[in-house]
Structure formats: structure tokens, C-alpha cells
Amino acid sequence: MPLRLLESTNFNFQSNPPAEVRIHGQKVLGTFSTDADRGYCNDDRNRRVFLEPDNEVDFDYTKGFEEHVAFGEDPRVTSLMNVLSWMRDHRSLLIKSGTLDTTVSRLNVDFVGRRGLFRNLLEAGGDKDLDIRLLVTLYRGTYFISGIWKNDRKLTRDQQMDGCNPDTPTPVDENASFYAMMSANCGRHRLLFSSEVQAERKDEITPPQRNYLNIRTIPKE
């Protein structure tokens, strides 16, 4: 199995901005959870539903903060072990969706990875200062990619967490999460990836992934 390690790679982009790439054809194939040790769990134990309050509320985000468990710096965050475990347990779903072609024993996708990594690579655009380490395995025509941002500066977002977390009956543990396994098209390339789902809207009409939510809090001005 060929293995390529691209370390301390500075991507040299042309001065012209890259052409816009459209992500389309997103489809949810299945889900899985992770436990407090970030281990793979073939169930929906961490699935959560978002219930929008009837009126404006003012939470004290400092309550329960001491018990909060954050991701921290851990290479397992970028590992593909959970993705590969799901693929092993749900081979029949991959065949049914046309993702796995058993006649030639290969995947009908170009890249397998995590949504966060694919997003960061696409958002990098013409930024020449980002230093990324990628671990890439090419197996039967499919690239399996994991990566780590080596420099401290990461891509900014329009909304950032304010550093506090709500008080809940169970302390917030970012290791115990819920993920959807999805396929999508990026230009002419087909992707298979895991995507964290922090909550879902309680909507019997809107199907996954359109009811998936990422919760963000911002400090008051």
C-alpha cells in the first residue's frame, strides 16, 4: 500500500484566485458516535435534537465550565480510524449506495477524509502562510487523507466560540461526539467523509443533512 507523507509543506498558489468549486450531491450514508476516549461507537448515543426556546434566554456559560472536557491537541483528532471502522461495519450500505464496487473491489470515490480537513484545504485559497502536514495513502485509486495544521494560526470563522460552555446535567465532553458519514461531489471529484453533527432541528419534514446544526455562541457587544 503506497504511503506518502508530506511534512512541512508550503503550498505555493498562483496569484490569480482559484476558480470557484461547487460542492453538490451531498448524501448521508450513516452515522456513528465517539466515546470519552474518542473511540468509535457503532450507535447514535450522542445524537442531540435542538429545541429552540419560545423567548430570548440569557445563559450563564460559566456554570459547569470546570467539568468541561475540550479536544485539546491530540493526533487522534485527525485520524481516519473511526471513518474506516464505520466503513468496515457498513459495507452493505456502501454497496447499496454505489460507493463500493464489489466487481472490481474498489471505492467509487476519489478522496476519503474528514469534512473539517477538506473544508480547510478548500478555504486556504491563495494563502501562502498556512503550513500543513498531510498523511496520504493511495489505495486502489482512492486517496485516504488525514492532516494536522502545524502553525498556530488557523483559518478564522465568522463566528467563534466565546470560550464558555453551558451548564448541563452531564458535563460537556467534546470527545463524545456524533458524526454523519456523507458522500458529495467537489467539482469532478467524489468525496467520502465524516462530519460532526452537534445537533439536529426537530423537523419531521426536513431530511438530514439539511436539518444539521453547528452551535456557535458569540459574546455580547
Automatic annotation (TrEMBL):
Protein name, as recorded: Decapping nuclease
Entry EC no(s): 3.6.1.-
Domain RAI1-like: 28-160
GO cellular component: cytosol; nucleus
GO molecular function: metal ion binding; mRNA 5'-diphosphatase activity; nuclease activity; nucleotide binding; RNA binding
Stated family: Belongs to the DXO/Dom3Z family.
Intracellular or extracellular location(s): Nucleus
InterPro entries, sorted: RAI1 (IPR013961), RAI1-like_fam (IPR039039)
Source organism, top-level taxon: Eukaryota
Essential cofactor(s): a divalent metal cation
Primary location class: nucleus
Biological process according to GO: NAD-cap decapping; nuclear-transcribed mRNA catabolic process
Keywords: Hydrolase, Metal-binding, Nuclease, Nucleotide-binding, Nucleus, RNA-binding
Function description: Decapping enzyme for NAD-capped RNAs: specifically hydrolyzes the nicotinamide adenine dinucleotide (NAD) cap from a subset of RNAs by removing the entire NAD moiety from the 5'-end of an NAD-capped RNA.
